[in-house]
Amino acid sequence: MWVDTHCHLDAAEFAADRDAVVARARAAGVVLQVIPAVEAANFDAVREIAQRHGLAYALGIHPLYVGRAADEDLERLAEELRRRRDDPRLVAVGEIGLDLFVAGLDLERQRRFYLAQLALARDAGLPVILHVRRSADLLLHGLRRVEVAGGIAHAFNGSDAQAAQFAALGLRL
Ligand SMILES: [Zn+2]
User: 14 pLDDT band (50/70/90 cuts)?
Assistant: First the structure.
């Protein structure tokens, strides 16, 4: 029995055969897939796909989308988390995090969105789905400041020491 904690099933690449993708995952023993949002514009899409296919979803603003997000999108996220608080398919805040790999991103803006979304996750009592790319130490710093209900450090490729620190804070890799 498997749970896929991170699957962008709403992406356009799946438009033609999304049903078949979900069916193949089920046949392979994947009992649940979690569909993380990447920006306010796809909050509805991930929820609707999760409902249609009996899957789960997360709501958040991805670090690579922070540049084009509006400040008000954080308020939109807060509202949506409140509105869906009794939806059992909403299982996390994500995908959030920091990306220090892609050149030219505004790190201060990424950090502001990351910390604000950690606080929303904490207030909602939800775990987080973290995007980690050359950013493990900065992500850990945030997790120590804002205590959340665990979560997943996605695509983690840091050191053993960093892995142990994520684990100590309740994160799975
Ligand atoms: Zn992702």
Answer: very high
